[in-house]
Write a structure and sequence with these properties.
alpha+beta, seven-stranded mixed barrel, two-stranded antiparallel sheet
């Protein structure tokens, strides 16, 4: 990689020669301006306001515009003569925990490469010291005509430097927060937590620029003369007042579906429902069926026995009823016979008793 700056890291009395290399690159697709009538390219040309002539790069310098509009020329030599200790040095001023650096201050990122064999030993010493301390180094350096603030940290086996904005370059967030007081319910927080858990972690290497890919496909299609079909834009629901609970629940379901978890969990929920409801019903039916059958059998046998008893009782009562009148008649005739016999014996006794009396009287 091509270096953009050569200098040294000042680590106390230790000086580490290094080269500064860009750690990031811009993959954005750049467009040119054209004349719509004929497709001719529109170019910017640097023209002097006084003589209205185009000026080349070698004839262009820099100047500071004063409040009254006066231009004060400043040359590179003027800047090089400034008493700036960080002109060619990354001067470490402190070591602090990484969480003390506000991410709002983060700017461009660079790799620091050891410049030459003698720089390998002190470079490795600083790298290992940063690793063991779990801290980052705060440094000052000069680049592109101005002094800057930086943060040094270890990435793999390399020392990386993040350009930092100066604290007074961070604007206070005044008037940004919602003006009205908003109450968030626990149920909404629970759903937000569920959505966070569902989204979970991500492999940063798997993330890519979908828009850039779509633009590349559009350019390739137009270059080959293919017709470009407009894609259907998804309605994000921006500007609509929605039910927050419903939106969170839908987001959780969508996140699970995108990760392939929705179907498995739906099946699991179905299995849980089956385990909780259906098997219990089946068991109840299996248990209740024998009982109901036995009950039916016992009821049937009881009804049968009752019917038999009723039949026996009826037969007995009918038999007794059929025999009852004759026996009663027989008993009444026997009683009358006995009465006649007793009356006959009584009359005979009276006659026998009366006869001797008559003889006696005779």
């Amino acid at each position: 990689m091509r270096s953009i700056w050569n200098g040294a890291i000042s680590f106390g009395l230790v000086s580490i020669p290094i080269k500064l290399v860009n750690a990031t690159e811009n993959h954005s697709i750049h467009f040119r301006q054209i004349h719509l009538a004929d497709g001719g390219r529109i170019r910017y040309r640097k023209v002097c306001e006084l003589d209205e002539e185009e000026v080349s790069g070698g004839e262009i310098g820099k100047a500071y515009e004063d409040a009254d509009g006066t231009m004060i020329p400043i040359t590179d030599e003027d800047l090089a003569q400034l008493p700036l200790p960080t002109a060619k040095t990354i001067e470490i001023v402190a070591f602090v925990p990484a969480d003390e650096i506000d991410p709002l201050q983060m700017d461009a990122a660079y790799y620091l490469s050891a410049n030459g064999v003698p720089a390998a030993k002190p470079y490795t010493l600083l790298r290992e010291a940063l690793k063991r301390s779990n801290k980052v180094a705060v440094a000052k350096y000069a680049l592109r005509g101005r002094e800057r603030l930086g943060m040094l940290r270890v990435v793999d086996d390399v020392i990386a430097m993040h350009g930092l904005l100066w604290p007074d370059e961070i604007r206070a967030p005044e008037g940004v927060a919602p003006d009205s007081d908003v109450t968030v319910r626990d149920a909404e927080l629970d759903l937000a937590d569920a959505l966070m858990d569902t989204l979970g972690e991500v492999d940063m290497d798997s993330l890519h620029d979908d828009y850039r890919e779509a633009v590349e496909e559009l350019i390739a299609a137009k270059a080959s003369g293919e017709a470009v079909q407009p894609s259907e834009s998804e309605d994000s629901g921006g500007g609509k007042v929605i039910d927050l609970i419903a939106a969170l629940e839908s987001s959780v379901r969508a996140a699970k579906k995108s990760r392939g978890e929705g179907e498995g969990e739906a099946e699991a929920e179905g299995k849980e429902d089956m385990a909780d409801v259906h098997p219990i019903k089946k068991k109840t039916q299996q248990k209740s069926t024998p009982k109901s059958t036995g009950t039916k059998k016992s009821t049937a046998s009881t009804a049968k026995k009752t019917t038999q008893k009723k039949t026996t009782t009826k037969s007995t009562s009918s038999a007794s009823s059929s025999k009852g009148p004759s026996s009663s008649k027989g008993s009444s005739s026997a009683t009358s016979a006995k009465k006649q016999t007793s009356s006959g014996s009584r009359s005979t006794t009276k006659k026998k008793t009366a006869a001797p009396r008559k003889r006696a009287s005779a």
